[in-house]
């Protein structure tokens, strides 16, 4: 994969310029969905946008938006952000939150999605808690704005001045196949869908192990399907334990899965928002979740424990689920990417224009961009030479 892809632009563009920072940009990550939506709203409003990440995968290309891979050594990125003509810099994940206070001359926003607690990842307790403590002490007091994706996250981060901006629910709709017909309109099977990552390291956190238990506890007449990102070995492990798995579905395929489902569940032990719940609601499906974290904000159907959810499922028929789906759809109308984009633009209007759009600064930006391309080219050339030497040895 190239280090810069999805299009290039003239670095001396007079348009206002924004940068988004996140660890990984690609399908299957909620943070990426948010960043894509924000970039699209800004581009439509006349901004140029750079998305900087440590790892980039193919996403839907957007005009006026570049995706740029950077190294874990952030010193070069700091200079690039300060002299790259950026008016606003938004960090969406670590390690970039820690970089924000060091960047001068730009409007800095820490956009908080939260971080799953360490007890869900054995051995990572201290490592994960240090992130939250570092943000509260060193980041939030030294940036212009702090935004949280839910009221739960605002409480969790301990920063009362954080602004809550909810995510949207309608991003998948444009990818649906309007000619698709339901494949179970006349059968009596109740189809239950969970959308989640499948990787072994996240099975406890995402509640995948509990989904296996749910599948085994339901009588005939129910079908449980897990859809999401993972590897073939992850899918095989889950299929061997009785789950049906849709591995790495495309956006269009995921739309079809939502449309075919009677009920969507989440057994996740932690979520800062939980996009699959509101995606389900936008498709008119009820979404059940445990009464944890941000779930009460995004769905009216929450349960204090696993057994209560299972009992509710067993008590429902398809007509009852349709009625709940209608209620869920009404509930998620408050979560709109159009409204989210307007709120982002309002926040960005708070940023002073400054002097970054001067001709001199655009010249400095050109030098930095050129130097960066030379650096990337030299690094790529060195890798080719090294690989050839290793093949000969």
Question: What does the model show?
Answer:
The protein is of the alpha/beta class and 393 residues long. The chain has 2 domains: 4-168 and 338-384, Glycogen Phosphorylase B (Rossmann fold, 3-Layer(aba) Sandwich); 173-335, Rossmann fold. The protein has helices at 30-44, 75-83, 96-99, 125-139, 151-157, 203-206, 208-217, 232-239, 251-260, 275-282, 295-298, 306-315, 318-331, 337-349, 359-392; strands at residues 4-5, 17-25, 48-56, 65-69, 88-91, 107-112, 145-148, 163-164, 190-195, 222-228, 244-247, 263-266, 287-290, 302-303. Strand 7, helix 5 and strand 8 form a beta-alpha-beta unit. It is globular, with a radius of gyration of 23 Å. The two termini are 26 Å apart.
Q: Which architecture of the largest domain does the CATH hierarchy give at level 2?
A: 3-Layer(aba) Sandwich
Give the full name of the CATH homologous superfamily of the largest domain: Glycogen Phosphorylase B
The radius of gyration computed from the alpha-carbon positions, rounded to a whole number of angstroms, is: 23 Å
* Structural class label: alpha/beta
The 3D shape can be described as globular
The low-pLDDT segments are 1-10, 384-393
Helix content: 40-55%
Number of helices: 15
- CATH top level of the largest domain is Alpha Beta
- Along the chain, the helix and strand elements come as EEHEEHEHEHEHEEHHEHEHEHEHEHHHH
Largest sheet: 8 strands, mixed
First-residue to last-residue Cα separation: 26 Å
Q: pLDDT average, as an integer?
A: 88
Q: Work out the number of β strands.
A: 14
Here the CATH topology of the largest domain equals: Rossmann fold
- The figure for the number of domains is 2
> What spatial order of strands do you see in the largest sheet?
1-4-3-2-5-6-7-8
């Amino acid at each position: 994969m190239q280090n810069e892809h999805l299009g290039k632009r003239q670095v001396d563009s007079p348009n206002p310029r924004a940068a988004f920072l996140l660890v990984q940009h690609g399908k299957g990550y909620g943070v990426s969905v948010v960043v894509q939506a924000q970039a699209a709203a800004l581009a439509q409003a006349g901004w140029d946008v750079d998305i900087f990440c440590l790892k980039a995968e193919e996403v839907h290309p957007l005009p006026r938006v570049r995706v740029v891979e950077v190294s874990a050594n952030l010193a070069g990125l700091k200079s690039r952000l300060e002299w790259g003509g950026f008016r606003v810099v938004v960090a969406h994940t670590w390690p970039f939150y820690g970089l924000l206070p060091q960047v001068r001359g730009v409007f800095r926003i820490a956009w908080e999605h939260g971080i799953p607690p360490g007890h869900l990842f054995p051995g990572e307790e201290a490592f994960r808690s240090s992130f939250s403590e570092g943000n509260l002490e060193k980041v939030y007091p030294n940036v212009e704005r702090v935004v949280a994706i839910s009221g739960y996250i605002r409480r969790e981060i301990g920063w009362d001045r954080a602004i809550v901006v909810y995510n949207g629910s309608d991003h998948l709709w444009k990818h649906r196949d309007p000619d698709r017909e339901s494949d179970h309109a006349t059968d009596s099977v109740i189809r239950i869908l969970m959308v989640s990552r499948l990787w072994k390291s996240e099975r406890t956190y995402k509640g995948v192990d509990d989904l296996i238990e749910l599948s085994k506890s339901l009588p005939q007449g129910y079908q449980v399907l897990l859809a999401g990102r993972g590897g073939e070995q992850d899918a095989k492990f889950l299929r061997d334990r009785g789950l049906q798995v849709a591995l790495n579905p495309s956006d269009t395929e995921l739309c079809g899965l939502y449309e075919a489902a009677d009920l969507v569940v989440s057994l996740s032990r932690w979520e800062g928002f939980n996009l699959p719940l509101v995606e389900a609601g936008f498709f008119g499906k009820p979404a059940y979740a445990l009464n944890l974290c941000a779930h009460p904000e995004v769905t009216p159907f929450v349960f204090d424990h696993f057994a209560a959810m299972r009992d509710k499922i067993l008590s429902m028929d398809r007509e009852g689920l349709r009625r709940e789906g209608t209620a869920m759809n009404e509930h998620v109308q408050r979560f709109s990417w159009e409204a989210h984009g307007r709120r982002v633009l309002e926040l960005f209007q708070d940023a002073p224009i400054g002097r970054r759009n001067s001709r001199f600064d655009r010249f400095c930006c050109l030098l930095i961009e050129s130097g960066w391309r030379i650096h990337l080219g030299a690094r790529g050339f060195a890798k080719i030479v090294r690989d050839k030497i290793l093949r000969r040895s």
